[in-house]
Design brief:
Number of strands: 18
Strand content: 15-25%
Distance between the termini: 26 Å
Number of helices: 16
Largest sheet: 7 strands, antiparallel
Shape: globular
Helix content: 25-40%
Strand order of the largest sheet: 15-12-14-13-17-18-16
Length: 464
């Protein structure tokens, strides 16, 4: 029988003392940014410095049958990085190196703990960047892989899975797998890279990521377009995309969200006060091009299109104003959280059905006595809603109906935040049971003891 003192000694030896134990953990290691914090006390939080140390930690946990929670920067929104009582948290914040860059092939290899901000700072001067911006630049690449993070630039650049060429992962028995590699296509066996992306840390421990980079485009401008009707905003989006224009960002903000973002900040957008009073929602369009001439042409074409669709006005922002608007949009989640939102969801539907989905949202909010404000990546149909309804029973029923409405339109419960713990219940209630069971069989192949990130995703057990 191995006692806790011996287990602690073993962990100290594996990570050279970079570990804390129950009663001495940093508070920030015990949760992510979910609105629903859960108090859990893991046995240990270990910080490996290399893939080999991750291998030893996995073998240690498997030998002692202790559940493992992988953790990046803790910026997830669905409880995916919540520790398990008596478990082991493996924090990757000491594995944050940019291992190599191939400028000719537009490829970078990074450790899982590197943040988006650190990666792009280290790419300065190469003419390349990593174009996926989920909204929180302190997020880690490993965390982005595990949730298939998206963000505002997905309308043009896609989401994480479109930029991950390969992975190094550690299984719970200590096996190390290298999937994919620095090539842009392959027809050689099962695509395990894509299987692991979005698996929320339930299949393997991601230690390294091979990324596809993109050239930096130096000419950019931001259009802010007010509309008197939210449906008009969502209806014009498919027209913008069908026109052949390639915006890098295509977002909407309802007027309540925009006013909240502007309140108490230095966000000065120059919107005519009379126009602002008539506005129900704003469309944000960002163009990035190779040449000033192409940028000017895109702006003129887009302005004509939105004016024909009923825009109240068109404002072109450059420099500081453009940067401030995008930064403000990225703060929308934190604003809703500080305002006391009871839930924040990220249903995704086909972009042409966003107007129908928002009509369903309005009807359901009225039926269940909820206040709902929204914004989202309307260019790819990802609608983010802040739900204000303190009654747990009413809110749970409302959420289930909102998810059901999204699925009826061909959508999904979560577009980018992941299921974690928060959305696991609705997903399991609404998903095809055969599909769920097939995914659980895959989980058992990768993790037969069920130790890796349990009690979330497809795991219906409750650890409380």
């Amino acid at each position: 029988m191995v006692d806790d003192t011996e287990r602690q000694s073993e962990l100290k030896d594996i990570v050279n003392g970079d570990v804390t134990f129950a009663g001495a953990h940093a508070e920030s290691d015990l949760h992510d940014e979910s609105l629903h914090q859960r108090t859990r006390e893991p046995f240990a939080v270990a910080r490996p410095h290399s893939s080999e140390e991750v291998v030893q930690l996995a073998r240690w946990a498997s030998r002692h049958e202790i559940p493992v929670t992988p953790r990046g920067s803790g910026t997830g929104l669905s409880g995916g990085a919540t520790p398990v009582n008596g478990g082991l948290v493996i924090s990757f914040d000491q594995m944050r190196a940019l291992l190599r860059v191939d400028v000719r092939d537009h490829v970078a290899v990074v450790q899982a703990g590197i943040t988006l901000r650190e990666l792009n700072e280290q790419l300065l001067g190469t003419g390349l960047h990593y174009p996926v911006y989920p909204g929180e630049l302190s997020g880690s690449l490993g965390g982005n892989v595990n949730t298939n993070a998206g963000g505002m630039r997905a309308v043009r650049h896609g989401v994480t899975r479109h930029h991950v060429l390969g992975l190094e992962v550690v299984l719970m028995d200590g096996s190390v797998l290298k999937t994919g590699g620095p090539v842009v296509k392959s027809s050689s066996g099962y695509d395990l890279t894509q299987l692991i992306i979005g698996s929320e840390g339930t299949l393997a421990l991601v230690t390294e990521v091979t990324l596809k980079l993109s050239p930096v485009l130096t000419n950019s401008a931001t259009m802010l377009v007010p509309f008197s009707d939210l449906r008009a905003v969502t209806r014009v989006v498919p027209e913008l995309i069908s026109s052949g224009l390639s915006p890098s960002i295509l977002e909407y903000l309802d007027v309540l969200t925009m006013n909240s973002l502007s309140s108490g900040t230095d966000l000065h957008l120059g919107v005519n006060p009379d126009v602002a009073r008539a506005t129900a929602a704003y469309l944000i369009v960002v163009f990035e091009t190779r040449t000033p001439e192409q940028l000017e042409g895109d702006l003129v074409a887009a302005a004509t299109l939105v004016e024909d669709a009923g825009a109240l006005d068109v404002y072109v922002l450059e420099g500081a104003a453009a940067t401030q608007l995008i930064e403000a949009r990225e703060r929308a989640f934190w604003l809703a959280k500080s305002a006391g939102a009871n839930e924040i969801i990220d249903v995704v539907v086909p972009r042409s059905t966003v107007p129908a989905f928002l009509e369903d949202v309005g009807e359901l909010a009225t039926r269940y006595g909820a206040f709902v404000a929204g914004c989202g990546h309307v260019g790819d149909g990802n609608v983010h809603l802040s739900i204000f309804q303190p009654d747990d029973e009413k809110r749970d029923t409302l959420l289930l109906e909102l998810f059901r409405a999204g699925l009826a339109l061909g959508g999904a419960v979560s577009g980018e935040h992941g299921l974690g713990i928060d959305k696991r219940g609705p997903y399991l209630a609404l998903a095809d049971p055969a599909l769920v069971e097939l995914q659980r069989k895959i989980k058992r192949v990768f993790d037969p003891k069920g130790l890796l990130n349990p009690f979330r995703h497809l795991d219906a057990r409750d650890d409380s």
